[in-house]
Specification:
Length: 205
């Protein structure tokens, strides 16, 4: 028997998770990393996307004035940790605010998927450029989020991309880590449910 993907099916669609802010922060440390650390002091470094510099674990400096100060003083480890916690909280707030504006019921989104949405905000600043991924995850539809994106051949809806110096679209290395952290467990759950369902059908024949 061949199973067709059904995004509205309850198979694997809702899986209660106990994901926490602490886990999210550990993830952000791993995926963001840091550069330009001298001893116990972190200094700003050039942002890959250009513009103002970045410091610590992915904190994009907000103004030239702030950048000039941090170029001289840097940040100690405690300050970098506090800034990461602050920015992580802000990213979750941005995700909730956007979902509320789009009339997605934030209270019904599984906790891990809330942080998946927050990570997009942390990385690119907003959910606006990922409307399909946002809609899917806000409805606990992970399978929809990992569908092929017809507007970006070779990429999934959830995958973040950039264009290299030759104008070719490339996927971020972050995509694989994001998938394993936030999406993989739902896909495995859905596959297992489908397998068990198929066995039940075979046994009933």
């Amino acid at each position: 028997m061949r199973f067709r993907r059904n995004h509205n099916s309850k198979l694997g669609r809702v899986m209660k998770s106990n994901y926490t802010l602490d886990k999210y922060i550990v993830y952000l440390k791993r995926v963001e990393g840091y550069k330009n650390r001298v001893g116990d002091t972190f200094y700003p470094y050039e942002s890959p996307e250009g513009g103002l510099k970045t410091i610590g674990y992915g904190y994009k400096i907000k103004s030239l004035e702030e950048q000039n100060v941090l170029d001289k003083t840097g940040m100690n480890e405690y300050e970098v940790e506090e800034k990461l916690i602050e920015e992580a909280g802000i990213s979750l707030y941005k995700a909730e605010r956007y979902c509320n504006r789009k009339n997605y019921d934030w209270s019904r989104i599984d906790k891990k998927l809330k942080y998946a949405l927050a990570d997009i905000c942390f990385n690119v600043g907003s959910l606006r450029t990922f409307p399909t991924t946002t809609k899917c995850l806000a409805n606990n539809d992970v399978m929809g989020a990992i569908d092929d994106d017809p507007t970006r051949k070779g990429f999934k809806h959830y995958e973040r991309t950039f264009k290299d110096a030759d104008g070719n679209r490339r996927g971020l290395a972050r995509n694989k880590i994001f998938y394993k952290e936030f999406l993989e467990s739902y896909v495995e759950k859905k596959w297992l449910n489908q397998k068990n369902y198929q066995k039940k059908l075979e046994n009933s024949i």
